[in-house]
Amino acid sequence: MENNSIALVDNFIKTYGTKVKSRESGSYVELMMDDHDCIEKVKISKKGKITVEQFYIPQNNSFYTEDDEFLRLMIIATFGL
Questions:
Q1: What integer is the mean pLDDT of 2-23?
Q2: For residue 61, with 0-12 CB atoms within 10 Å meaning exposed, 13-18 middle and 19 or more buried, which class applies?
Q3: By the 8 A CB rule, do 50 and 42 touch?
Q4: Which of 40-59 are b and which e, b meaning 16 or more Cβ less than 10 Å from the residue's Cβ?
Q5: How large a percentage of the chain has pLDDT more than 90?
Q6: C-beta neighbour count of 72 within 10 angstroms
Q7: Contact 57, 77 (CB under 8 A)
Q8: Which of 7, 12, 48, 61 has the most crowded Cβ, counting Cβ within 10 A?
Q9: DSSP 22
Q10: Residue 58: left (phi > 0), alpha (psi -120 to 50), or beta?
Q11: What's the pTM?
Q12: Exposure of 21 by Cβ count < 10 A (0-12 exposed, 13-18 middle, 19+ buried)?
């Protein structure tokens, strides 16, 4: 069973994050970084395979609740680049 904290983080990233693509133009990256933070999330499968994914996380979102904002700050502090 997955840890509730991990599920909360994964759900937040799935809901609000935008996955960083390997071939993004410099202008797109600059545009995203104007009002997003970038995080790097490492996953280890049960078989030991390691995958690293990066996501843009919006700094402001009108749909954020107080809990979402707290979770966003925690995610940026933990996974931020």
A1: 90
A2: middle
A3: yes
A4: ebeeeeeeeeeeeebbbbbe
A5: 69
A6: 22
A7: no
A8: 12
A9: S
A10: beta
A11: 0.84
A12: exposed
DSSP label of 20: P
**Alpha helices in 1-81, H assignment, sequence order:** 4-16, 26-35, 66-79
The Cα 30–Cα 45 span in angstroms is 32
- The residue type found at 43 is K
Domain of residue 23: give its range. 4-79
Split at pLDDT 50, 70, 90, the class of 67 is: very high
- 36 Cβ partners below 8 Å, 6+ apart? 18, 56, 57, 58, 59
CA atoms within a 13 Å half-sphere pointing along the CA-CB vector of 53 = 12
| Residue of 31, 40, 33 lying closest to 75 (CA atoms) | 40
Query: How many domains does the structure of the chain reveal?
Result: 1
